[in-house]
Amino acid sequence: MSIYRCTHCKHLGEHSAPAGMGRCPQCGGETKLYDAVHFINQILARYTAVLRELDTLREESSGGVPPLQVASIH
Ligand SMILES: [Zn+2]
Fold first, then answer.
1. Domain containing residue 57
2. Statement to judge: residues 66 and 41 lie in one domain
3. Domains in the chain: how many in total?
4. 37 CA to middle of ligand 1, Å?
5. Following DSSP, what letter does each residue of 33-63 receive, concatenated?
6. 5-42: string of b/e by CB count within 10 Å (b at 16+)?
């Protein structure tokens, strides 16, 4: 059992084949199949990286003042 997000039709689902390359049951396109834990770890890593970048951008756009302090000034 593996998890995939089809690179062709964007269908997200479970696949009966083990991790590796496989065919999307939705469109028949070839797509990469992932181990479930690996798949979730990759998504969490990207999510965490985006949150860090968002925090950095918010601080930069507020002149280094954390967003909550900016909100209390107005
Ligand atoms: Zn597909």
1. 36-74
2. yes
3. 2
4. 21
5. EB-HHHHHHHHHHHHHHHHHHHHHHHHHHTT
6. bbeeeeeeeebeeebeebebeeeeeebebbeeeebeee
Confidence band of 74 (pLDDT split at 50, 70, 90): low
State the distance from the centre of ligand 1 to the C-alpha of 25, rounded, in angstroms. Answer: 7
Task: Tell how far the Cα of 30 is from the centroid of ligand 1, in angstroms.
Answer: 8
15 C-alpha to center of ligand 1: Å? 12
pLDDT tens-digit map of 7-40 = 999 999 999 999 999 999 999 999 999 999 999 9
Do 29 and 61 have their domain in common?
no
Q: What's the CA-to-centroid distance between 29 and ligand 1, angstroms? A: 5
Same-domain status, 22 and 4? yes
- Residue 73 clears pLDDT 60, i.e. is over it: no
